[in-house]
Amino acid sequence: MRINKKDNIYPVVFGIVFLLIWQILCSVKIIPSYLMPSPLQIVMALAGDFTLLMYHLIYTLAESILGLILGVILGLIFALLMDRFLKLYKIFYPFIIISQTIPTIAIAPLLVLWFGYDLLPKIILIVLVTFFPITIGVFESFKSTDRDEINLLKSMGASEFDIYRFIKLPSSMGKFFAALKISASYSVVGGVISEWLGGFRGLGVYMTRVRKAYAFDKMFAVIIIISILSLLLLKAVDLLQKISMPWEEKNEKNN
Prior knowledge:
By secondary structure, the chain is mainly alpha-helical.
């Protein structure tokens, strides 16, 4: 479905109106400042702590990207193994599903207990929350590959490597990038959650400190930074998809 660029004005207008109403309600004291700061207070807090926020942002961004890359690699490996070997599918699949039924907030303290407060437990947690969408998305795409195309290549003497190279991997790219967008947003959330429970740097650590100080304007400021970081990662995935799948953009223009 094509989206007219003029339609982008509607969410912008809605956002501006929402912020104006929010500011007015806070200014006339209908909403107490100790419950919810006004947009102006949040902007001032963001400007006042900008340097400190950028310091913590770099650390969270680095661990999110590293964890995401490792999660994608692990997810692709699991998808390939389960598609190629039926016994491995029967072994791995139930445990992969079970791994996602355990709340992230319950796993994080154990990782901190086992591996300390450094980078390792945070990376492990991010990998745990990012590999699942990749594994399931790519695996299901492999399974839905057209059997006639596979049989045609086999009749021409194609190897398993050729089947993956020319059919399964290209046909799975759409679902891979859809899963990657989910994993990219999960990577930031997973990183922040892991920082809540221990650490010395990161947006989650900053959030914990300002929460204990009841500085809610700074709490909202860091939430905005986290949201922007997630959106930037999603845009990066979109750009990577356009570079990797240029034919998709041409098809959208033709439609």
